[in-house]
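Render Cytochrome P450 90D2 in 3D.
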Amino acid sequence: MSMTVGDLVLAAPAILLALLLALVLSHFLPLLLNPKAPRGSFGWPLVGETLKFLTPHASNTLGSFLEDHCSRYGRVFKSHLFCTPTVVSCDQEVSRFVLQSDARSFVPWYPRSLTELMGKSSILLINGSLQRRVHGLVGAFFKSPQLKAQVTADMQRRLAPALAAWREQGPGARLRIQDHAKTIVFQILVRGLIGLEAGPEMQQLKQQFQEFIVGLMSLPIKLPGTRLYRSLQAKKRMARVIQRIIQDKRRRRRALDEAPPARDAIDVLMGDGSEELTDELISDNMIDLMIPAEDSVPVLITLAVKFLSECPLALQQLEEENMQLKMRKAGLGETLQWTDYMSLSFTQHVITETLRMGNIISGIMRKAVRDVEVKGHLIPKGWCVFMYFRSVHLDDMLYEDPCKFNPWRWKEKDVSASSFTPFGGGQRLCPGLDLARLEASIFLHHLVTSFRWVAEEDHIVNFPTVRLKGGMPIRVTARD
């Protein structure tokens, strides 16, 4: 018997429900039926356990979601996060295996709003030879003595007027470390990326970037007026500025008989000569590489000030080490170089411990392109794995008294160990890790050798990103 149009209309909800059920089962059955699958739960339909996972929590805890699931299911468990079935790893060996794997096993995966904003040509999303080429070029430039010397000179030059302004305010001047760190670091890194100097155009770019970055953790809805839509528009405006700079550089290169020396990251990528490195790809990646300047590095500096304020013995040793360097260089009549800052062993221990406790990047996600088994756990093809760095950094089996700020622990501990991954790992290890340490070292050196301070109470917020709720206000008094 044939169905009428009315019958089809009445049956439509049931058909849609059946299709939805089939889609859900196609995701879940591989784990439900496999004895090697991690234990766990999936939560509500569609949203899964995402809301519980994102619940704000104290910085020195894993949060109720992780603590509950690890106690019930172990350090590797299944869940449903960001609309995708996920295996969550709080185990250093499993996370290390995934980080070290190549694109034949795992590829990057991010929530949809983030992938929309980064674009398909982002270094965070591309794979294969193109990813290796871009990562290699940028990484080599970020590690180069030339850029480190430029960053050092720029930071010293931009810190000088800030320090002078704080002195002029007199004893007890109140300032918010997070704000000052963001202003200084953004200008310096943007100059290293695209060659843009401080001025009105830099300020406009920073405003657009702030509009862009708040959309990274937003609902994946692109309708006019939504958060994601406004962030995408801001990115388009930034891309126009950067592509104009790229085109100006290309015209100047054509006018010369030979290519000029590389002064910024755009020059480095243009100099490769590959047709794959289009203007769009270069501009997209310059925007993505600005994220540490607005977020990661300033927060690292701010957290270091907070932790030092709460540990007078560490602050005292940091002051002594930096004052000795300052007096020695002054006695020789020499300016501090980037190698001087990186030679400060206890200062580096402070930065390492801040990275461990602060967990500025709490974890990253990868997607399995084939069935992968690691340490007895199955990660099925098409599923994501969330490597939760915070759980490893706060594991009392790996770190004695892990919630205590203890820079001295790094005198004996190896920062390259698999239990310390604040910059990720493997082929996608953050290329700017040396620059982050250098910029934090310079800021801390000039702060502790120029001022004493008293910190006001402030709290670390872990959602949507790590930051200080009040911007870490301190009251400074100039040293004699």
